Amino acid sequence: MKKILLPTDFSENSLNAIRYAVQLYKDQKCNFILLNTYTPVIYHVQYMEVGAAQFGLLDALKEKSQNGLKSVQETIEKEFPNPKHFFSRISAFNMLISEIEQLYEENTMDMIIMGTQGASGLQEVLFGSNMVHVLKNSKCPLLAVPSDYSYQHPHEILFPSDYGVNFEERHVEDLKQIASLFAARVNILHVSNADELSPSQEANKQKLTTLLKGTSHLFHIVQHHDVGTAIQEFQSQSRIDFLTMLNNKHSFFENLFFGSKVKHIGLHLNTPFLIIPAKI
């Protein structure tokens, strides 16, 4: 049974991501873990040493969190009744990243699905601050769902790669599963200024070809000096409705999403985006 963690801050954006998750995996047996973390607005090391008033605040926050999770579960089960789906709820007095790391170590989930924007909803930001922290630290695949994205089946999946990774089965496992569920095609896009691949790139490409055997896929190469622009142009021209990348430290992924052009591509991120850690 697939174990999917669904962090929520009870914003409409996070609820939209949960709706996407249950529709994407409607034909798959899943255990969905709804997670809400809470801390006082002012949270510091000495917090647990202070008086009863603060503990009263903590109780109120806990109750609000638990009631919010119950409400979310009831809403989703009413909208999308599915005997293949099971829900559990975690309300934690913790920071989101710390809680996710702990849950991962306890083998609670094998995927995270969450909305790109938090309660603040700042449109000029690629990801909400929570998403950025989770993205940088997550050891399991993370599926980011854009704000206000209306669900549709994935048909054309874009997988940009610089072929700088020695591909393993776990790198493409979720990608292949989603492609299989919807008979979708995987478009592997290589953006380069060079005329030819290096020997190591060619070897990695061949490894990827082997791993994708049985999955509909096409290889594309685009000559362009800017990876972000090339990805955007390919997306718009090819009717891409799902994007996935490997998060390889010190790779073009990190430069693309945490470099100076982060807002440039962020404003055009209009499809669900699966980020897979290259290393665990």
From TrEMBL:
Alphabetical list of Gene3D superfamilies matching this protein: 3.40.50.12370
Highest taxon, organism lineage: Bacteria
Cross-referenced Pfam families: Usp
UniProt domain UspA: residue ranges: 1-146
SUPFAM superfamilies, sorted: Adenine nucleotide alpha hydrolases-like
Record PANTHER family: STRESS RESPONSE PROTEIN NHAX, UNIVERSAL STRESS PROTEIN UP12
UniProt family annotation: Belongs to the universal stress protein A family.
Protein name as annotated: Nucleotide-binding universal stress UspA family protein
Species this protein is from: Kordia periserrulae
